[in-house]
Design brief:
Elements: H1 2-15, H2 23-27, H3 40-76, E1 85-89, H4 95-104, H5 111-121, E2 131-135, H6 141-150, E3 155-159, H7 166-175, E4 197-201, H8 206-226, H9 237-250, H10 257-270, H11 277-285, H12 325-332, E5 341-344, E6 350-353, H13 356-373
Antiparallel strand pairs: 1-2, 3-4, 5-6
Helix pairs in contact: 4-5, 8-12, 9-10, 9-12, 10-12
Family: Belongs to the transglycosylase MltG family.
Pfam families: YceG
GO cellular component, one term: plasma membrane
Amino acid sequence: MSDTTNQSNDTQSQKGPIIPKSPSEALRPERVPEPPKRSKKARGQVVLFLNFIMTMAVLVCVVAVIGFYYATSTYRNPGPLQTNTNFIVRSGAGLTEIASNLERNAIISDARIFRYLTATHLSAGESLKAGEYEIKARASMRDIMELLKSGKSILYSVSFPEGLTVRQMFDRMLQDTVLEGDLPAALPTEGSLRPDTYKFSRGTKRSEIIEQMAAAQQKLVDQIWDKRDSSLPLRSKEEFVTLASIVEKETGVPDERAHVASVFLNRLGKGMRLQSDPTIIYGLFGGEGKPADRPIYQSDLKRDTPYNTYVIKGLPPTPIANPGKDALEAVANPWKTQDLYFVADGTGGHVFSATLEEHNANVKRWRKLEADKGSDPNIAVDGQPEEQPADNGATVAPPKKKKIN
């Protein structure tokens, strides 16, 4: 105990005597000692580090600005393509694939620039469209982007003249190497496809063209049928199209169609056989059509087929071709005549008559023209004359055009 007391006294003696503070001094806050100052060497290292960070940030910004300027300039400037070329974007192709193919074909210089900057021009869910495009020489990446974004691809066309059968139309589609896909195994109804020129892009299926043709023909038939002459002796649109197909095949002269239609309608009204050579051809050869070197013989007029209007009364069971707009309108609103006959005039057209006597004289002139050409006498002539006028289905001198395909 004495040792401890002695040590405490020694400590107090070393620090000096304890002087009590005055009341004012006791209320005054004590000064906090200042932190130790860093050395000049430590301060220099911090400054160097901050300078390095700032320098790198500036360099990054400069590089970014230069890179952005280079990328946008490259995107806008003319490209490396020297001549116009076609480029195909397949269905389902993404931006990466399209960019790589463009670079591979030397159409653009940098696929990455095209990919990144094109992506900024596409809104959510938007993409470049499939198809075949014509890329102009020196086209910029931006030009190419705008073209592929628009979907304005190269359009091809396939034409179907009036009077072709469904089979002949199918053959044309098969010969077209741009169209894709198979044709339906079952042929559409004869007369149900509209003859016209149809435009399409690469990748279009043949079945799509057929659907367009069928829809167009149905719309056309409905429109013309609704505006028909109310006195027509036709009971349905099917009969309407059938007669229009016969008119289509009988004459290639536009101004004659309504006149030819009036002759057939007059015959139907009198219960007379139509006696149309194109119906014979369809009955013999169907949708394939008559070979070019195969004439119609007198014996063919007697062949018993459902389509031979020299044998059957009224209209054949179906159309014999696909009629165009002019033939349909000619039947819907024919000329008002009393004519029952027509025969080729030797110039590509026909001469019409209301009586058998007039018709026989016209046929005689036609025969002479054919004889002067040295025609085979066994070939059926245009307008075989009869001894007396037809009545109640009796044979009438046949209307026939010079050449039927």
